[in-house]
Fold this sequence. Notes:
Elements lengths: L18 H14 L4 H8 L14 E4 L2 H14 L3 E6 L17 H8 L12 E6 L1 H4 L4 H10 L3 E4 L7 E4 L3 E7 L2 E5 L4 H13 L2 E2 L9 H11 L4 H8 L3 H15 L4 H10 L4
Parallel strand pairs: 2-3, 3-4
Antiparallel strand pairs: 1-7, 2-5, 4-8, 5-6, 6-7
Helix pairs in contact: 9-10, 10-11
Amino acid sequence: MSSVPETPSSQPTGAATSAPALRASLVELQEQLRGTDAVLTRLLSRWQPGAGGNDEHFVRVWENRADQARRIHELEYAARTSLLVFQSGANTVAPVPTTLPDEPEERQADATGPAMRKDGNPDAAYRVVVDRDFLSEPAALRALDQRVAQGHDVRVVDQPLVKLVVADGETAMVRLEPGHSLELRPPLVLLATELFESVWRRSRPYLREDGDLSPTDRRILQLMLSGLTDAATAHQLGTSPRTVQRRVRALMDLAAVASRVQLGWYAMRNNWV
Length: 273
């Protein structure tokens, strides 16, 4: 794995804390954390760079977006067994289109620096959770379809997610705010893993292959359940809002329900999504 050049903007900084304080924080998180991004973000925000101490062996701060993108790329392609990923909207570090294999290199270089691999790590099993904001991004469905085609396990939740990647259960990157991410090593990486597993348990599959619905109808249901408008859904699918409305109406007739809320319940109970 290539190393990231040490520059003033990318220099990792240790965040000071004493061992008792760390233990107290871990106990607090164990008591409070039940899969909420807010709890993890509040906890990690307590580590402030430049306060002295020697804790950079388990907390490193990254503040430059290009450096963050390169470090995430390194973690992904160095992983040996597993990658746990949260993807959310407003991807300023690595916008969705720049992660697609057929994206022109010159556009990618503008966003993330030198061209990077986009073919996925064949040695790692991917589990990916995306939120509603991600589904609203340009090319989001195409990116997820490519993940599914590569054998990645993709699921969806409706609440906003913190951006997260955990590699091999050994290293995690968590974005606290734009331009500010933390790289976590044991024992803190366990918190990121627990967060992922908690969210994973209450997520739903991105697409199911069983049943009689077409892939397009499944996508429409997925986007509808995530709260996208007909116009936003049509934009993602490359069709018109009227076509989306017609297909939703047909699905309601098929399910013998009178409202979209009832359609959502029916779809969930009958494994349509």
